[in-house]
Amino acid sequence: MKLREYEAKKVLKEFGIPVPAGFLIKSADELAPHLNDLGENIVLKAQVDVGGRGKAGGILMAHRGTAIQAAKDLFAEKIKDLPVREILAEQRLEIQHEYFLSITIDRSTKQPLILFADNGGVEIETTAQDRPDAIRKAVVMPLMRDIPPFMLRELLGSAPKEIGQIINKLYRAFCDKDAVLAEINPLVTTSQGVFAADAKFIVDDNALARQGIRVNRDLTDREREAEKHGFSYVELSGSIGVIGNGAGLTMATLDLIEFYGGKAANFLDVGGGAESERVMHAVRLVASVPSVKVIVVNLLGGITKCDEVAKGIISAGISQKVIVRLAGTNEAEGRKLLSKKGYEMLSTMDLVVKKAVEVTA
Amino acid sequence: MIYGDKKTGILVQGATGKQGEFHIGLMNTYAREVGGRGVIAGVTPGKGGQQVHGVPVYNTVKEAMREHDVTASVIFVPAGAAADSIIEEANGGIETIVAITEHIPVHDTMKAIAYAQAQGSVVIGPNCPGLLTPGEVKMGIMPSGLFSRGSVGVISRSGTLTYEVVDELTRAGIGQSTVIGIGGDPVIGQTFMDVLERFEKDPQTKAVVLIGEVGGNLEEEGAKSTDLPIVAYIAGKSAPPDKRMGHAGAIVEGGEGDARSKIARLKKNGVPVASRPSEIPEMVRALFRTC
What value of ipTM does the predicted structure carry? Predict the structure, then answer.
């Protein structure tokens, strides 16, 4: 789950990385008591869960005298359709230089990967494209508590030595907070020292519980509802509902819909050992999406009992058409149950998908 | 045979749990059919002295290894403790560790794999269905009824999609040398490249089907590393960016790892890519005709 900037900066502070003086406000009035601590130059940053916030008008520059009005204006804005409910009001730094620092996971080496560049800020994407060598890299063996000093020297090049400590602190935060991405861009030098001017932090979804995060904000309401049943669910925009078992097979079903010219409404992986009740919940959940006209059920596996799946589909009692492909034990019984109730059961995934696309065409 | 055969003695961690018990039964049914050793020991802390389908259960891996000649293991331990199980087995000297468990925090996985590597153990998974070498050995949860013995290796990040493809291959009369699910997590022990290296040394394997999905570039990295003829399939062409498609590792992040660019890179390297699973058998046949 992606943390908001103020949450990410709280983590950085906890690990000893300097961040600008800042306060989270939920209304413009809350800003007044903090004005003295923020100094003359202030930046107001909308805390909304979208990328490209700056370009979309989510960041305003202000002064002590204009900050409260500017905050009022920002609270009245919508940033890429999202209302502004929280603003991070920060001291504006006198920046001397901007660096780029990012830690992620490298799938090839199976280790944390540290990226550091002398020219950070908005330039980093063009740097990555035009001069990839300008971004220095290091992978750290995950059993090590700290980054070896030689590696820090290699990363830093001619950058100030104190940044080395910040890299190591960010690495510790990355490990201890179960991050899959920890990024400071820009990391800035000022006459007062080095500061994390912006921060991005993504926590591993499989570690949310032990990090004390109860609600995964990255999911939509329906996706969260699905999670309660143990389903993996992703909302899409088409009219063909999809239920499969296993992530790969379900993805392949979506792709097949695209191949035959249709559009999927969702991705739903019911997981292993689909009993009738789970299947019923899955069918009802997908059927509750207003755009869904037809539902494709594609279940395959040695331990899936087809009669159980059939019972689940029937007991869901939904109005939309359900087209079923089932392979597993008790296939004949499943087929019998479904055909008695007038459901269509076909033998391959190509056939069910083709049929569903025809129905919605 | 690339990770084990009839003679491989298998240990199951999490032997007394629902999953462990169920799959010990299935693995040993398969072992009896092919005349293999199968699962010969189980481990569940605190349950030492019990038996599961006649297999003795021990409290620790060390105890089990004192009594039995095991070289491989299959882990059914819940996510919070599974990384510790990998470390315990590597510490005990088990050569091949298959981790079925899903939802292990990725930092735990990275540590466990680094430790196993330092001990000289090989980790398959986590979040995988294990492997099956038809006629030899089953280590994991694959439904053996779909398989047939032959010369095509299959490597996949998925479970059921692998069964789908194996089913298609078998129906088309194309047998498999070994079928392996390497796992749907972003960090996995054996990657496509590692398995392809084993397939290259396996005289039985003449061609490989590589089943990948969105996220990362391990498919391309693997395909580039080998001279074996390959047919690939990549799932997730319709996956929207920044959404996890069921597997923790199946995510298009920062504009990278999307299906179309993966397919383009594979094709650029001369690898034929199927646009749907049902095309795979015919494409494998075409490979055999040309080489």
Answer: 0.95
